[in-house]
Amino acid sequence: MEMSNATMRRRWRPTPVNLIAGGLVIAGFALAGLNWGFIALVGLGAFGPGVLRELGWLRDKDEFELAAARRAGYHGFLAAGLLAFLLTAYYRLHPDLTAWPGNLVELILVVLWFTWLLSSLLAYWGARRMAMRLLVIFGGVWLIFNILSGWQQGPVGVLMQSLLAVPFFGAAWLARRWPRAVGILLLGLSVFFVLQFGLQRVVDDPFRSGRIFVLIFFIGPLLVAGLGLLSREVDERE
Amino acid sequence: MKPRQDITSHVRHHRLLRGGLTQQDLADRLGVTRQTVHAIEKGRYAPSVGLALRLAEVFGVRVEDLFTLEKDDGDE
């Protein structure tokens, strides 16, 4: 390969800004168990460096990194803005429905952050590599989650639960050879899982047992990986 | 419709011509991250005029030798 071992070792190192921001995010989540007021620290860690960069007080990123962050921010704005208007329309049309405002805000924050994260990965890795890595990462996460949740049911339970991770790994392996076909397959799988998961149940009571968040974290990677593999970038850039 | 204009990068070609120059070496000379060099080489990122000029200076070529404009069919 063209990179020496020494070069590979210094591929990525957290900067002081990364460490401070990450520390604030972790501390915010950890301390929120004691007092919800500490959740504001998460906001400071997540958004503070960006605010300082836009003010010109922090110059720790080069032009590509700034462009990627701004593009991801725009994607987050589009996703969160669209969701906010859909939620407004839905709850205005159904005045009998009540949702705790905190849940709605958390939902918008999750979509905002998730979109930003996926868009950043797309900028750094490119469409195909992002799709493959995303599928492997989420396949791994779901495998661990399913093994743990199936543990009490014995080996058969673990095996059955683990099967849920197979589509992720299979798609990641196939994506290298047939990106378009796998892209279409992933979009189909997204629709299938939405229906299988019970979209109506989610719409009726989205925040019971965190249904909506499970839906976002399960369907989101499949959907984004599928769209990535179908994007024009795959043929032209990679 | 506004024509889509893509830029083809020849940076990788010029870097490999200078044997032993890694992406990290080039990034260090330009004052950017390795990911930025990688994105430019892959054509995922079109650098600013300033960075393109610095690249040209490092390789001792013209900017036009490093990047060429691809014109879409709708551009004609």
Biggest pleated sheet of chain B: 2 strands, antiparallel
Form type of chain B: globular
Question: Strand content of the residues of chain B, in percent?
Answer: 5-15%
> What's the overall average pLDDT of chain A, rounded?
82
- The structural class of chain A is mainly alpha
Strand content of chain A: under 5%
The beta-strand count of chain B equals 2
Uncertain parts of chain A: 1-9
Question: If you had to describe this structure to a student in words, what would you say it looks like?
Answer:
With 238 residues, chain A is mainly alpha-helical. In chain A, 79% of the residues lie in helices and 0% in strands. Chain A has helices at 5-9, 16-32, 39-55, 63-93, 101-125, 127-150, 154-162, 166-175, 179-197, 199-204, 211-230, 233-237. In chain A, 19% of the residues are buried. Mean pLDDT of chain A is 82; it is low at 1-9. Chain B is globular. Chain B has a two-stranded antiparallel sheet with strand order 1-2. In chain B, α2 packs across α3 (34-42). The interface between A and B is medium-sized, with 18 and 21 residues.
